[in-house]
Design brief:
It is a single chain. This protein has about 425 residues and is of the alpha+beta class. The chain starts with 14 loop residues before the first helix and ends with a strand. Strands 3-4-5-7-6 form a 5-stranded mixed beta sheet, covered by helices on one side. Helices cover about 65% and strands about 10% of the residues.
Length: about 425
């Protein structure tokens, strides 16, 4: 859910970029029509077979993911070619489990404007590529035409792809002119491709600001909700754990005070019991404070903090952490919280016998983590619950959370966070 404000686009008329664009267009002129034909076929089959036992739904589902694939490819191609700073396309997700969450994610992907911009630009580039392929043929024919007087037997020589028959006497000048015009048109198509790509793929300044405002609003709401969930959890832990234990300590000390003169031995035993309960209450308070903030996370980083967390887990944890360097404090704290809450849910509700935690820092500057247990599954996001806290905490940190928990298991929690948030 991160938003990247695109910096001013570099020049699309640099010779190196124009040459690379021409090569791209030539390839798309051959491959693009095939891809567009496949997309059209899936659309036609999906709509045509929709009433036949709903078979068309399969083709329409495939079409949605094929459109995403085309948009992903086009975004990567344009950004690699021109360096516009476009954010990589990612599948949209609702963050909700079950079939309803899948349908919601599918709808979000279908209406994603970035994906449709990618498909539109791919279509435009395919048309330009088809033109470039034709112009390459004209250029080659023009070059050949300049040598026509050396090999021509007849009175005229055809200029390929134009339907024009050129007299042999005029073959050399016409061939040169055709070759020069074809080269000029090919270069023009390369420049036009860059201009159109910038217009289509790079959002306008107003759209960027609107998206930034929307994302900021979502993150702010997530932060407020996450804080509310965390406050509720702290209140619950204090009310259900530490508070009753402290009340018990007070009552035990009161009984000991009453028996101090009449039965010193019983009073001594009660004081010892109160002392034990006090130490247990201190331990619970430390655990509660650790859940609010983990000092080892600041001192030694996420890897060490997760190792300590796995060591305290009542469920065996297979930890696989491969991260180079440190991310921002907020990012590491959000990732730690999500993993800790997922482990707690695996122990309390999933009845899992093993949990696997994988953490990676990817080249794109994203901190990615996945927690998967072998429990009973069927977890749902409930207001104020642990999964709700994970989602809101990750959203507040500018990331994405995906929870998949089919009945029967396994349950997986996957989060992605910008490392430098």
């Amino acid at each position: 859910m991160t938003t990247q404000i695109v910096s001013p686009a570099p020049s699309v008329t640099a010779p190196r970029r124009v040459a690379a664009a021409i090569a791209h267009l030539a390839a798309l002129g051959v491959v693009g029509p095939v891809v567009l034909t496949i997309l059209g076929t899936f659309l036609g089959l999906g709509v045509g077979l929709l009433v036949v036992f709903l078979i068309g739904i399969v083709f329409l589902l495939g079409l949605v993911y094929m459109l995403y694939g085309v948009a992903w490819f086009e975004t990567a191609r344009i950004d690699g070619l021109y360096g516009f700073g476009l954010p990589a396309r990612r599948l949209r997700t609702s963050g909700r489990p079950g079939f309803g969450g899948f349908l919601r994610s599918l709808w979000l992907q279908l209406i994603d404007p970035g994906s449709w911009r990618g498909v539109a630009n791919f279509t435009i580039a395919t048309v330009l590529g088809w033109i470039v392929v034709g112009l390459v043929g004209i250029f080659a024919s023009g070059v050949v035409l300049t040598f026509a007087p050396l090999y021509a037997d007849g009175q005229a020589v055809p200029l390929v792809r134009t339907g024009i028959d050129v007299p042999v006497l005029w073959a050399v000048p016409v061939g040169l002119i055709a070759a020069v015009l074809a080269i000029a048109a090919i270069v023009g198509c390369g420049i036009l491709h860059g201009v159109l790509a910038r217009a289509v793929m790079v959002p306008s300044r107003e759209a960027q600001l609107a998206e930034a405002a929307r994302t900021s609003s979502v993150q702010r709401a997530g932060a407020v909700r996450a804080a509310d969930v965390e406050r509720t959890r702290i209140e619950r832990d204090l009310h259900d754990g530490v508070q009753p234990r402290l009340v018990s300590v007070g009552m035990t000390l009161g009984l000991a005070q009453q028996k101090l003169e009449s039965d010193p031995e019983a009073a001594k035993a009660l004081i010892a019991e109160a002392h034990t309960s006090t130490k247990a209450a201190i331990t619970e308070l430390r655990q509660l404070a650790r859940g609010i903030h983990t000092s080892v996370l600041d001192d030694r980083g996420l890897d060490a903090a997760l190792s300590a967390l796995a060591g305290r887990s009542v469920v065996p944890v297979h930890l696989d952490v491969r991260i180079d360097g440190r991310c921002s404090r907020d990012t590491e704290a959000a990732a730690y919280f999500a993993i800790a809450e997922a482990l707690t849910n695996a122990a309390k509700h999933a009845h899992a016998s093993e949990v696997r935690v994988v953490v990676r820092r990817r080249d794109t500057g994203v901190l990615w983590a996945r927690v998967e247990d072998d429990g009973v599954g069927g977890a749902r996001i409930l207001a104020g619950g642990g999964l709700d806290g994970i989602v809101n905490r990750i959203i507040a940190a500018g990331g994405d959370a995906r929870i998949d928990s089919p009945v029967g298991g396994p349950t997986s929690v996957e989060v992605s966070l910008p490392c430098a948030f």
